[in-house]
Amino acid sequence: MNAKLLTGCRLITTLLLVIATSGCSLLPKSQEPGPELATPSLSPVVEVSEDYYGSIPPYKPNQTRGMLSDTKYRIDFSHLELGLMEFARDTFPTTDYLFQEGQQIKKEQVLEWIAQEKTGAANGQKKKGILVHVLEHDYLSKDKQQLAGMVLGLSLSPEYQDATGQDKMYTTQELQAKGQQLAARIVQSVRASNPTVPMLILLYQVPEANSSLVPGHFIMSGTVNANEAAVSKWQPIDEEFFLFPSTDVESKYAQQSLQYDKLMRQTQSYFGEYIGMTGVGRFMGGKLTELTITATAEYDSRTEVLQFTQFAAASINQLFDKNVHVNLYVQSMNKPLAIYIRPANGEPYMHIYRQ
Questions:
Q1: Where are the alpha helices (DSSP H) in the chain?
Q2: What's the distance, Cα to Cα, between the start and end of the chain in Å?
Q3: pLDDT at residue 60, as a whole number
């Protein structure tokens, strides 16, 4: 199985990363100033290349793992974690650095930051804070096996209450501004114990509460160079996710919505029986860059699965531009049946499960 093509499957790569990315904390007593950070970037498709980060056993989990289990938010960790790694590789290349889950920021510290965001409501009650979670990734230098870089993902909620207690939503620009202010305080706190370690800060807007299909998205990145006490440069990230089919994507991206509708009509007319097809599209800078489709039905045989997957793949290639990365998952109600991956760069791949 071609590993590079399968890296576009976020669900599969996330499981691999949870198992493979681990390490222990080997912290230096002091750090020499490092080079100025490169401007981080996020690739059109969040995927981890075959050149994975190495790690040091034994496995040590992130200090803040499990904090979200008691909240109403379903943060898409596959997108969040892989996105943090995409940014990290620009500054901390896999050839020179090892990965470990965050060991510097404790659960108690994150709870304190969250609590601080919930104080100060006009009526004396606790208000809704924008900070939901902080995810830390650490990077060790390969030569000294010492902490040499940190990436912090600040998960933010746009929900708030106005002076009258009414629920409101911050715009992206407002959330970016609020997130920068919050990041300044968090960086200052982290700098107390790590004064010289370069850091990347990612602002991540969480999906709607209890959302199960559309993930959150990155809205801004910032850099803190070695020996700097604050973020020296911020840059916005134009990333959006839309459910297919939906009125939201139809109103904003009509052409892509029509293409998807045509794909559904073609597959339904060819096979006759109802096939549920749900898609999630990722847009970067207003352009569709990744489309993940889940086709669910009760297929009678493996030959039917094969015929459907081949037909759907042909329709996808006909309807969607070649620079769109496409993941097609074919399944019944209780098990996967086939996958078709068409990367933007590289050869497509199809696999039919035998059992």
A1: 3-6, 10-20, 77-91, 107-117, 172-191, 247-252, 254-271, 302-319
A2: 17
A3: 81
